[in-house]
């Protein structure tokens, strides 16, 4: 992963030059209201009932200027905050750090503000990510709130608003105020982007905005923006238009002097362009690593025509600052096109570690050989050779590469292939067995296409349906025909992928408020079948309580006990484990049944039917079922479909490790169950197949490493492959 993900070449240098020499600011109070997951259409789509009406009102009065910003992937909070504050394009590594961020070391807006105005006070309320980024004395007062309680729609925002209103009543006590609201994002994760909760939250935000503007003086400035958007289903992390476009609204009473009527601005800008623009408005130096370009359309409304020299100085300063980031470039320093300079700086600022990338290719292919051949003791000579090369060269990369290559040569030259793996049984010449034998090759070839990665579920659905259809025809089996019908049903349950994600599916139909009767009926029927399948072996009568508890929890039948009901469920599962009255597979099915959304309960039931009635005698068929199960639940090769709300089912306090385990189980649980069904030999075969996919995928990325646009597709797939490989390897051990 270190080699695959582009690393940022940003330095810890601090910008010293600024067009503003005076230590006194001509601006009044500066307020940033950041609304998490604020989509652009919540401001610009006036034909919808889902938009901020207060913005339209202030635009008509000539007090507001709205622009549309384009963010970069990944569209999650931490990298987006870093982009706004530093003007850089954060790495995909920040997706991991999003759940446990650390101090921001790069030059940034708040550091430059305190550096120029040490006596001025910055106040913050909201997402505690900010407090983790600035743990020192940047904030005069701060109140950080845990951002991952996605089931909390109101309490966090009410606390933020309470602090905000207190500050508005004592505006002489501060100079710079930042508030970060989380409720809109949480509602999106739970119910999607269009529902009654969203309407209520937008009305609440309208009230907050109008309250702030009513307290502002002439020289005060309010900025309202979002860190990222969200898809219609409510998730984010990918690169669809609904996720990457956010609004930025500048509100000030002084705009009335420069905007005679409602100003329409149809141009789009990068989110990182906010950084130099805010630097100019705050009259501070542009952060050293900034890749943004001044938004002249905004600045011209705040700087009158008598300040043309200052305006020119700002643009020259932006050009000089971008040139500082360039090294080994043939661009002329007299070049005036800031966009050409910025594009070159972007390429330099985000590069891959080529040595680590090559080493990962070598190590992956070496691991393939380990699984494919019997290893002889003579292969240990490669370790001796590795050590000698390292002692001579003191180069870890070179020594590991030579050691791995020599190991491969020795093993291939002396070892024998493990004939137990990839074996074809006695009926191996049948068409279904031939399909199982050759499909990994076609899947690997498909990984060289970014579209096939985005729509990988189509590959696995096709393979599963084809195999079941052929078995049905060859064996004239009603059992396989029934399984084929079920597989066709659940592939239409959750629309996934990228190109057709917004097409309505069965899950969307069931989740509509007017179809709640259908949803309850399916959940109730699924619970009866779940009860039957779970108690088929009649090992414990306590299991009869499990589906009843899930129904009570999901349908909120005991309102006052809703939060603790899942704890009773976990307690019963713990009791069954201690008494050895439940198998590992049924334990995982039971966990998934309470973690999944109500409409997905039928997916769990159908896979339980597959598990109990399908004869799995080939690891490659189990691998097809394992991969298909991942997509059946609505997952995809994108961060956007990760349902983080599953990590908080029945957990009343913030426990990152527990939340992580529950999210992992809800995402990969069905895949894990199919791998558990394999024998020791078949597990090795499965790991061999996954290692082959990894090896080919790394090689594919290496060949396409200069095409940066594919990273929004490749990066999530790398995460998913690493997560799958880790579990497969633990299972193998």
From TrEMBL:
<keyword id="KW-1133">Transmembrane helix</keyword>
<feature type="transmembrane region" description="Helical">
    <location>
        <begin position="653"/>
        <end position="675"/>
    </location>
</feature>
<feature type="transmembrane region" description="Helical">
    <location>
        <begin position="356"/>
        <end position="375"/>
    </location>
</feature>
<feature type="transmembrane region" description="Helical">
    <location>
        <begin position="516"/>
        <end position="534"/>
    </location>
</feature>
<feature type="transmembrane region" description="Helical">
    <location>
        <begin position="710"/>
        <end position="732"/>
    </location>
</feature>
<feature type="transmembrane region" description="Helical">
    <location>
        <begin position="687"/>
        <end position="704"/>
    </location>
</feature>
<feature type="domain" description="GPI ethanolamine phosphate transferase 2 C-terminal">
    <location>
        <begin position="588"/>
        <end position="728"/>
    </location>
</feature>
<feature type="transmembrane region" description="Helical">
    <location>
        <begin position="435"/>
        <end position="453"/>
    </location>
</feature>
<feature type="domain" description="Metalloenzyme">
    <location>
        <begin position="168"/>
        <end position="267"/>
    </location>
</feature>
<feature type="transmembrane region" description="Helical">
    <location>
        <begin position="381"/>
        <end position="414"/>
    </location>
</feature>
<dbReference type="InterPro" id="IPR017850">
    <property type="entry name" value="Alkaline_phosphatase_core_sf"/>
</dbReference>
<keyword id="KW-0472">Membrane</keyword>
<dbReference type="InterPro" id="IPR039527">
    <property type="entry name" value="PIGG/GPI7"/>
</dbReference>
<dbReference type="GO" id="GO:0006506">
    <property type="term" value="P:GPI anchor biosynthetic process"/>
</dbReference>
<dbReference type="GO" id="GO:0005789">
    <property type="term" value="C:endoplasmic reticulum membrane"/>
</dbReference>
<keyword id="KW-0812">Transmembrane</keyword>
<protein>
    <recommendedName>
        <fullName>GPI ethanolamine phosphate transferase 2</fullName>
    </recommendedName>
</protein>
<feature type="transmembrane region" description="Helical">
    <location>
        <begin position="590"/>
        <end position="614"/>
    </location>
</feature>
<feature type="domain" description="GPI ethanolamine phosphate transferase 2 C-terminal">
    <location>
        <begin position="433"/>
        <end position="538"/>
    </location>
</feature>
<feature type="transmembrane region" description="Helical">
    <location>
        <begin position="555"/>
        <end position="578"/>
    </location>
</feature>
<dbReference type="Pfam" id="PF01676">
    <property type="entry name" value="Metalloenzyme"/>
</dbReference>
<dbReference type="InterPro" id="IPR006124">
    <property type="entry name" value="Metalloenzyme"/>
</dbReference>
<dbReference type="Pfam" id="PF19316">
    <property type="entry name" value="PIGO_PIGG"/>
</dbReference>
<dbReference type="GO" id="GO:0051267">
    <property type="term" value="F:CP2 mannose-ethanolamine phosphotransferase activity"/>
</dbReference>
<dbReference type="InterPro" id="IPR045687">
    <property type="entry name" value="PIGG/GPI7_C"/>
</dbReference>
<dbReference type="GO" id="GO:0046872">
    <property type="term" value="F:metal ion binding"/>
</dbReference>
